[in-house]
Amino acid sequence: MPTAYREKQHRAGRFIILAVCASAVLCAAQNGDDLREVTTSGKVENNTYSNSHAGFRLVLPQPPCDPKLNTSVDAGKGYAILLNCTHVVKGWQGMYTFTITLDYREKYPSLQNIEQYVRSLRHSGERLSGEKTVQTEEARHMAGLDFVQAILSEQLPEGGLIYQGIACTQLRGYLLCFEAEAPSVDSAKALLNLDDKLQLNTKQSTK
Fold first, then answer.
1. DSSP string covering 27-90, please?
2. How far apart are CA 24 and CA 30, in angstroms?
3. What does the pLDDT read at residue 6?
4. pTM score, whole prediction
5. Distance CA 41, CA 32 (A)
6. Strands 132-142, 145-155: pairing kind
7. In a 10 Å sphere around its CB, with 0-12 CB exposed, 13-18 middle and 19+ buried, how is residue 76 labelled?
8. 17/147: higher pLDDT
9. DSSP tag of 105
10. d(CA 90, CA 79)
11. What would the mean pLDDT of 152-157 be, rounded to a whole number?
């Protein structure tokens, strides 16, 4: 699942190829303070997630999922799963999980672009979890932002496949990713279509 997927990859230190923050202690302290502001600013109302500090709001998928805020927060590493939202149905078809994660661009001074970031996530999924690539990195323009999207598949123990999609963008100093897990590629792609759903705040923090 996206939540477990991201937590596992993050703990494993997937960005081996990227340089660490030039001043690790200062970087961690600054990001930790900002991350506390981010996590306390997130809320869900009327099936919409909003975060006044990070500077965006997002209409969540339909049918509604069960939202859980800040399911994983690591202030020391400057990383958080801001939202994990699961829609469970009887049987397999129709279920989905939707996740929002946040990282900090300044942690990776050698990062060339968002495509490299998403590629690292995809390669880690292949290497650490045995996932298979369905779609390599693909540029998408949604809600006025440039995203890079990739899709993987994972074999379920009981048989069948689950598809995991991820779409990431840079929003000021944040690396903001939206993840979806669904029983088909088309369903995963539909969940990651953020047009007419994602809106940026006109007044944003200075991060």
1. HHHHHHHHHHHHHHHEEEETTEEEETTTTEEEEPPSS--EEEEEEEEETTTTEEEEEEEEE--S
2. 10
3. 43
4. 0.86
5. 14
6. antiparallel
7. exposed
8. 147
9. G
10. 33
11. 92
Range of the domain at 176: 2-182+191-200
Whether 67 is in a domain gets the answer yes
**Half-sphere exposure of residue 165, counting CA atoms within 13 Å on the CB side?**
24
Buried/exposed code over 127-158 (b: 16+ C-beta within 10 A; e: otherwise): eebebeebbebeebebbebebbbbbbbbeeee
With CA atoms as reference, report the closest residue to 21 among 82, 102, 111, 101.
Answer: 111
Q: What 3-state class would DSSP assign to 168?
A: strand
Give pLDDT tens digits for 1-47. Answer: 344 434 444 433 333 334 344 445 555 557 788 999 999 999 999 99
How far is it, in rounded angstroms, from Cα 168 to Cα 58? Answer: 14
In a domain, 126, yes or no: yes
Which residue matches tokens 């300044």? Answer: 106
Q: Give domain status of residue 52, yes or no.
A: yes
Contact by Cβ (8 Å): 42, 80:
no
Structural domain count of the chain: 1
Q: What is the CATH number of the domain that holds 96?
A: 3.40.1000.10
